[in-house]
Amino acid sequence: MTAPDAQDARCAEQPQPARPEVVAGTTVDHLTETYQAHYRSLLGLAALLLDDTASCEDVVQEAFIRVHSARSRVRDREKTLAYLRQTVVNLSRSALRRRILGLKLLSKPMPDMASAEEGAYDLLERDDLIKAMKSLQRRQREVLVLRYFADMTESQVAETLGISLGSVKAYGSRGIAALRVAMEAAQS
């Protein structure tokens, strides 16, 4: 035998120290037994916290799913039920929070909806405005669009178009006057 082979043979002959058995956590079988034995009591716990049966069943089912997916972290099998109870309580709290948030959102009054007739009038007015805008001089249209639709200040419009502040004011004033005339003509 060579030196490494002799050393391997000696190691194999020596008794190895006993290793403590590592508990893998809650087994699926144990969780199934816990489900069968304690489902109704966990449902009762959820019923004390929530008010409708469907939510209680959902919470308990979700608790079992969560404990099942984290079963390797539940080292002591005797604590499985405690973990399930705590999970049911936490999920019930979350469900109540979601309900409260939903009620807060629903309690705000909905804005009045425009009738179909009003929507049609708005569409006609918008079409009239677009036609009137197209009838303006190019510079007047540019000034009005930048000033009122893009919410720019007069100085920003002047800088954007490369014209003076006085020109922006003049084009804007004349453009609004021309729009007013065109809109009145379209409405009559």
What does this structure look like?
It is a single chain. 15% of the residues are buried. About 3% of the residues have low confidence. The longest helix has 28 residues. α2 runs antiparallel to α3, α3 crosses α4 and α7 packs across α8. This protein is elongated. The protein has two domains: 84 residues, Rna Polymerase Sigma Factor, Chain: A; 60 residues, Arc Repressor Mutant, subunit A (Orthogonal Bundle). Helix content is 75%, strand content 0%. With 188 residues, the protein is an all-alpha fold. Pfam families: Sigma70_r2 (PF04542), Sigma70_r4_2 (PF08281). Keywords: DNA-binding, Sigma factor, Transcription, Transcription regulation. Belongs to the sigma-70 factor family. ECF subfamily. This is SigE family RNA polymerase sigma factor.
Task: Outline the fold blueprint.
Layout: H1 3-13, H2 28-49, H3 53-69, H4 80-107, H5 116-135, H6 138-149, H7 154-161, H8 165-187
Helix pairs in contact: 2-3, 2-4, 3-4, 5-8, 6-7, 6-8, 7-8
Domain RNA polymerase sigma-70 region: 35-99
Family: Belongs to the sigma-70 factor family. ECF subfamily.
Protein name: SigE family RNA polymerase sigma factor
